Amino acid sequence: MPAAFELSEVSVMRPGKLLLADVSWTVDENERWVVLGPNGAGKTTLLQIIGASMHPTVGTVDILGERLGQVDLSELRTRIGHTSTKVAERIPPAESVRDVVLSAAYAVTGRWNEEYDEHDHARAEQIMGEWGIAPLAGRTFGTLSEGERKRVLIARALMTDPELLLLDEPGAGLDLGAREDLLASLETLAHDDDSPALVMVSHHVEEIPIGFTHVLLLRDGKVVAQGPIDEALTADNLSRTFGQRIQLDDDGGRYAARRAGYGRRAVRPADTGENA
Ligand SMILES: Nc1ncnc2c1ncn2[C@@H]1O[C@H](COP(=O)(O)OP(=O)(O)OP(=O)(O)O)[C@@H](O)[C@H]1O
Hints:
Helix 5 (118-130) packs across helix 6. By secondary structure, the protein is of the alpha/beta class. It is built from 10 helices and 12 strands. Adenosine-5'-triphosphate is lined by residues 14, 17, 19, 37, 39-45.
């Protein structure tokens, strides 16, 4: 299986700060990865590297068969779908949902005088249908709820049939129902053989969709563990990643984590005020 991307001994340095330290990571095109780590671990920086938005200070990066430093980054970026709060901030609030999705065909935010053909319109309608946002097509982006925005951004990222899809915290800010809806959609995407290679950044194991195959754990710019999810996502590795003893529960591929030993007191009927 060809690699979607390969990072070899990558470091990113900024004055007084090592953002990524000696990261080597290969993702094959049929794999679905979750990147987990605490605030400031370097997750967004890592996504910027594999999204062809940043060069490493040291190391080599091959993305979709192209070596960073030897390729036009803007051309390479057209083959990569990337959702993040930064992308969301660039979208004019008055833009209609239909145009937010459609304008991905020209890699622009904010429709101007671009000419879209029948295929573009058909693809936008199809993808809006698949992501449950067709009823919102005429609404403006600025009036959407956080959950609706997240779905629109993913639909936009998929509009151009990318070979690699990067999702930076798609579950952030969602209520329980919206998160579960999104997870169900991401589970479908993960199981679809035609889907691109997927990399999702998250802070929470509860946000890992079923069907995601691999995990990379990051702390202080360094990889703590990486590999198939059932091998690398362990309580020990999470404890090292988050710097405290973590208990991990796995319920059929849905995970839950909390500090070990916290909340041991059983809630008995007396606690709830109900009779036994
Ligand atoms: N240009 C820069 N100069 C110095 N430090 C930087 C620069 N850009 C980012 N950082 C720092 O690098 C660290 C990693 O940032 P990054 O945004 O990649 O972390 P993250 O894991 O995505 O964090 P979060 O989960 O909070 O979004 C942070 O401590 C951040 O403050």
